């Protein structure tokens, strides 16, 4: 049909996923409709169901892709502090994935791709905690992992919802989180979790004025 978009083998799945991510980023996952996504992708109403079966299948695919990208981002970061920074960066650059990944009621818990990708991400965070000195990790490494996850996830969630706009006072979110993580895990953490240096103080005026005048 004139004007109707066509896709080579394998392109349709990507097109529907991309359209879904656009909708989620703009209106949240609850706004998803397979019929609307088919219209956006320029295909028949039944085409998305061929790849994803239903809405839950589509959201499961979004979550699995998100966890795979997330695991890759975490694995590239050296040490727990920088993995926390990577966590915040991922949430900022992949907000649609992030919204779906941590809502288990939206996807199929037994999906193999989702389970494998989530396990890789979990391992990346766990190994970051294991790399801390014992004094910083404490007696319970598992609880230290929960603390690190809560810190990064809470910061990322507040950032995405706009609740940190005033609190950061124009400071880059990644720099702010790096300092925050250093304050929390600095106890015995050596160079891995030291707070970032504060910005330099303004130079003293040389023309007789007082500072701030």
Number of helices: 11
CATH superfamily label of the largest domain: Tetracycline Repressor, domain 2
What average pLDDT do the residues reach? 83
Annotated CATH topology of the largest domain? Tetracycline Repressor, domain 2
Order of helices and strands: HHHHHHHHHHH
Question: Could you tell me the number of beta strands?
Answer: 0
Q: What's the CATH class label of the largest domain?
A: Mainly Alpha
Q: What structural category arises from helix and sheet content?
A: mainly alpha
**How much helix, percentage-wise, in residues?**
55-70%
**Radius of gyration, in angstroms, nearest whole number:** 22 Å
How far apart are the first and last residues' alpha carbons, in Å? 70 Å
Low-confidence stretches: 1-9, 188-213
Could you give a short description of this structure?
This protein has helices spanning 11-27, 34-41, 47-52, 55-75, 79-93, 95-101, 112-130, 134-137, 141-160, 165-168, 173-185. With 213 residues, the chain is mainly α. Mean pLDDT is 83; it is low at 1-9 and 188-213.
